[in-house]
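Sample intake — Acetate uptake transporter
Collected from: Novacetimonas cocois
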Amino acid sequence: MEWNRGMTHNSAKADPAPLGLMGFGMTTVLLNLHNAHLVPMGGAILAMGLVFGGATQFVAGLLEYANGNTFGMTAFMSYGAFWLSLVMLLFLPHWGLAPASSPALMGSYLLMWGLFTAIMTVGTLRASRMHQVVFASLTVLFVLLGTAELLEQPVLTLIAGYEGMFCGFSAIYLAAVELLAGQVGHAVAPVDVAPMPIEVPA
């Protein structure tokens, strides 16, 4: 699907956007349940980040490339790479292959992703309001997490956890709407906060 206001996939090929959005959304919710101190860190979060948030999103990006969608390709492949790199950041020190990242380095890593996401958010200005919500809230999430690391303020991570769940559920909502719209041929739920103007024939 092109990242615009239309809900219909014009290509005869399958639309990979719901797959990528669902992989991103579900993994983001799961990780931020931990950031909000609602669940402990565990294998389920790491496996989800490696497989659904990482590899599956990366595949969705490759499919967007095949559909000629530069924005979708960049988004899904980049955030797939983010999840893969995040899991590697956690595993490498345990394997003795690299030292653990300092708070300053981890904060810088997260803020770089915040900068990337802010640029991507600008790219959603011609897309639906829900696309804008997903990317804008993700920008805020990266800024909160990066600042929490740099300042070593756990309360910011806690706040980020709840904000991140909002971001993740927004992506899940958008994925569900796009998936079901593809099945029934029309939008089944709104993706714009404000209604689009209706043109009345003269």
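Post-analysis note: Helices lie at 17-35, 43-66, 70-95, 103-123, 129-151, 154-184.
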